Amino acid sequence: MRNIYFVRHSLRDFTIRDDRNVPLTSDGKNLARKLVPFFLDKNIEKIYTSPYLRAVQTIEPVASQLNIEPVLFEDLRERNVGKWVENFSEFSRNQWNDFDFKLENGESLNEVKKRMMTTYNDLLREQDSNVIISGHGTSLAILFHKITEGKFGFREFNEMKMPDIYCAEYKNNELLTLDNIRY
């Protein structure tokens, strides 16, 4: 039995529009530190993270406490919207209603799913121990949608918190459960 723990990043600074370099707010950093006790007894052997600053800052306190250097994976990044979107709820709804919908220079959810599944399958083959994957709401939600055969959908995506923890339990490389963890 092994567990893959997914951590959605903590509270981000919405005043910064450079998606890759958006830091956590001070409240976001405090919430990230509160993740540490949950992971102390989980026998984590590796931590993988999106290279985006908010995902790295979210998992840093856990990584530091566990003395594990996080491995940055470009393909764990958030979905590229293409341009700043004022009405993000409407944009998200449009994407979930049509997985091929995207803005100019942006990614569709099908494109996100493809890169996330490729990376996830590579990580599953590489690791047979408990690991953490730190990432983003949309990219993780699309991964969850795929591995649960559609059971994780738009409603569940909208219920994700910042930060949030999900645990996928595997036995013989077969997904048994995917649960939202209340820590």
Structural features, described:
The chain has 183 residues and is α/β, with parallel strands linked by helices. It has a single domain, classed as Phosphoglycerate mutase-like (Rossmann fold, 3-Layer(aba) Sandwich), CATH 3.40.50.1240. The chain is 39% helix and 20% strand. The protein has seven helices and six strands. It has helices at 26-33, 36-39, 53-66, 88-97, 109-126, 137-147, 154-159, and strands at 2-8, 44-49, 71-72, 130-135, 164-171, 174-181. Strands 3-2-4-1-5-6 form a six-stranded mixed sheet. Strand 5 (164-171) and strand 6 (174-181) form a beta hairpin. The longest helix is centred in the middle third of the chain and has 18 residues, at 109-126. It is globular, with a radius of gyration of 16 Å. The mean pLDDT is 95.
List keywords for this structure.
alpha/beta, Rossmann fold, 7 helices, 20% strand, globular, phosphatase activity
Overview in brief:
The chain is α/β, with parallel strands linked by helices and 183 residues long. Helix 1 packs parallel to helix 3.
Alpha-carbon distance between the termini? 21 Å
Order of strands across the widest beta sheet? 3-2-4-1-5-6
Class computed from helices, strands and strand pairing: alpha/beta
Q: If helices are DSSP runs of H or I spanning 4 or more residues, what is the number of helices?
A: 7
Which descriptor suits the 3D outline?
Answer: globular
The stretches of 5 or more residues where confidence is low (pLDDT under 50) are none
- CATH topology name, in short, is Rossmann fold
CATH class: Alpha Beta
Helix-strand string:
EHHEHEHHEHHEE
Q: What value does the average pLDDT take?
A: 95
User: How many distinct folded domains?
Assistant: 1
Number of strands: 6
Helix content: 25-40%
* CATH 2nd-level architecture: 3-Layer(aba) Sandwich
Largest beta sheet, briefly?
6 strands, mixed
How much strand content do the residues show?
A: 15-25%
Return Rg in Å. Answer: 16 Å
Protein name: Histidine phosphatase family protein
GO molecular function, one term: phosphatase activity
Pfam families: His_Phos_1
GO cellular component, one term: cytoplasm
